Amino acid sequence: MKAVGICGSDVHFLKAMRLADFIVKEPMVLGHECAGIIEEVGSGVSTLVPGDRVALEPGISCWRCNLCIEGRYNLCPEMKFFATPPVHGSLANQVVHPADLCFKLPENVSLEEGAMCEPLSVGVHACRRANIGPETNVLIMGAGPIGLVTMLAARAFGTPRIVIVDVDDHRLSVAKNLGADETVKVSTNVQVSLIQIII
């Protein structure tokens, strides 16, 4: 592994030793936003060679259930996901991972950028699910990392107007610098904040 992002879920595991129903019961390696360089491939692998720079998709599905067969493998109930107990994460020197979940990076994409493919995929998925396009205005609730990559994805999908909302001035400043058309700081008076967004 050459680059691993620190996700909010990693921070949550470090602070609380759990995330929803996933509880850390023994030492665990964190990290799932990752990219690296192939060192070795199995005998049946023809798509990758040692030296290839790759981004890794961190979830391994069963490929047998109806959801996997229908192409909705991200919902597989047997999913084994990096850094989700009891599965170790990618914040390590090496990991063993299926070749079909390792994606070659173009030469103009750094390993650090490759590690951001996973969070970016969350934003792309959100835009696809919401049918974002040139006639769609977008409101994003939260200017954290996922909100920001969703904003970038929405812009790439052609949306003409993006409003992003947060409670933190610094995050809103970053959002503005990255291309938000409007930023709104949410106050404790949610009704006033919502009126400000709508108008």
From TrEMBL:
InterPro entries: ADH-like_C, ADH-like_N, ADH_Zn_CS, GroES-like_sf, NAD(P)-bd_dom_sf
Keyword Oxidoreductase: yes
Gene3D superfamilies the record matches: Medium-chain alcohol dehydrogenases, catalytic domain, NAD(P)-binding Rossmann-like Domain
Pfam family, one: ADH_zinc_N
Cofactor: Zn(2+)
Repeat in keyword set: no
Keywords, ordered alphabetically: Metal-binding, Oxidoreductase, Zinc
PROSITE patterns found in the cross-reference section: ADH_ZINC
Stored SUPFAM superfamilies: GroES-like (SSF50129), NAD(P)-binding Rossmann-fold domains (SSF51735)
Alcohol dehydrogenase-like N-terminal domain ranges (all copies): 1-107
Family per record: Belongs to the zinc-containing alcohol dehydrogenase family.
UniProt-recorded name of the protein: Sorbitol dehydrogenase
Name of the encoding gene: LOC115716344
